[in-house]
Each structure stands twice: as structure tokens, then as C-alpha cells.
Design brief:
The chain has a four-stranded mixed β-sheet, with helices on one face. The protein has one domain: 3-Layer(aba) Sandwich (Glutaredoxin). About 35% of the residues lie in helices and about 20% in strands. It is α+β, with helices and mostly antiparallel strands. The protein starts with a strand and ends with a helix. The mean pLDDT is about 95. This is Glutaredoxin family protein.
Length: about 80
């Protein structure tokens, strides 16, 4: 089972859209990590959020993604 992490920001419209895609794709559990105020995460993800990371595989899916593309990425 993948360990999914959604890196996001507070008050981020694109992050809200990514959450909708995750719900539509019926993604099981995932963790939300807010990068605001974390210098290391800001440096890594600052301009790229939202980013979905499969920690088990070490893979990241950057926005934009849709539910079909997300399902393919998860099943790969």
C-alpha cells in the first residue's frame, strides 16, 4: 500500500482542487503536510505545490493532475 503525502499550503486554491481530484479518484488514506513556515519544505516545494508524493516508491506527482492520470500514476 503506498504511503501518500500531499504537500500543500494554507489558502491555496490549487491545493483545494488537488484535494477534490483525490476525493474523485477515491484515493485511500493520505497525509496532508503544510509547507508554510518550514524552511526545508518551502525550499523543496515552494513553487510546486500541490505535490503528491508516494513515499514508498520515492515518486512525486506534480500539479496539474486529474483523477484518471492520478489512478494511472498510483497503479504504475
Amino acid at each position: 500500500m503506498p504511503i501518500l503525502i500531499l504537500y500543500q499550503r494554507d489558502d491555496c486554491h490549487l491545493c483545494d482542487l488537488a484535494l477534490e481530484v483525490l476525493a474523485h479518484a477515491r484515493v485511500p488514506e493520505f497525509d496532508s503536510v503544510f509547507i508554510d513556515g518550514d524552511d526545508a519544505l518551502e525550499a523543496r516545494y515552494g513553487l510546486r505545490v500541490p505535490v503528491l508524493r508516494d513515499d514508498a516508491r520515492g515518486l512525486e506527482l506534480e500539479w496539474p493532475f486529474d483523477s484518471a492520470g492520478l489512478r494511472r500514476w498510483l497503479d504504475a
